[in-house]
TrEMBL record:
<feature type="transmembrane region" description="Helical">
    <location>
        <begin position="108"/>
        <end position="125"/>
    </location>
</feature>
<keyword id="KW-0472">Membrane</keyword>
<keyword id="KW-0812">Transmembrane</keyword>
<feature type="transmembrane region" description="Helical">
    <location>
        <begin position="75"/>
        <end position="96"/>
    </location>
</feature>
<dbReference type="InterPro" id="IPR007382">
    <property type="entry name" value="UPF0756_TM"/>
</dbReference>
<protein>
    <recommendedName>
        <fullName>UPF0756 membrane protein ACFPPD_04140</fullName>
    </recommendedName>
</protein>
<dbReference type="Pfam" id="PF04284">
    <property type="entry name" value="DUF441"/>
</dbReference>
<comment type="similarity">
    <text>Belongs to the UPF0756 family.</text>
</comment>
<feature type="transmembrane region" description="Helical">
    <location>
        <begin position="51"/>
        <end position="69"/>
    </location>
</feature>
<feature type="transmembrane region" description="Helical">
    <location>
        <begin position="6"/>
        <end position="31"/>
    </location>
</feature>
<keyword id="KW-1003">Cell membrane</keyword>
<keyword id="KW-1133">Transmembrane helix</keyword>
Amino acid sequence: MYGELVLVALIVIGLIGRSSIITTAACILLIIKLTHLDRYLPAIERRGIELGLLFLTLAVLVPFASGRVQPKDLVAAFTGWTGWVALAGGAIGAFLNSRGLDTLRADPQLIVGIVLGSIAGVLLLRGIPVGPLMAAGISAMLIKLVQLFMDK
């Protein structure tokens, strides 16, 4: 019963905050719970991030597949400083994502703060909750920084 109440609360929060992603996700999970398909929740938890990343990557790669990005565009991307910054950003992002995954495996209760922080970011900062791994990676980095300063 508690899980259903949390999902209903997330639906309401998503509606108030105009976050269709949170609202839809909570609705899908509520339907799964109410239709007694709970046995699929561990599989969704285990493979959901991979599927989400797959679809996100598909969406990002569409311009390549559709031909909107040409070889000259690739060359142009790395002749200016912004292309190199984007390359560094992608590498740093991938690194932080790996640290986020390690952190969530080692300390799974952090997901509560990450989810609540993502909701707050959507509602208060008009953010988009597409990166729980990135949020976990940033959390891991901030935890390390706080530990570094607390030890001194």
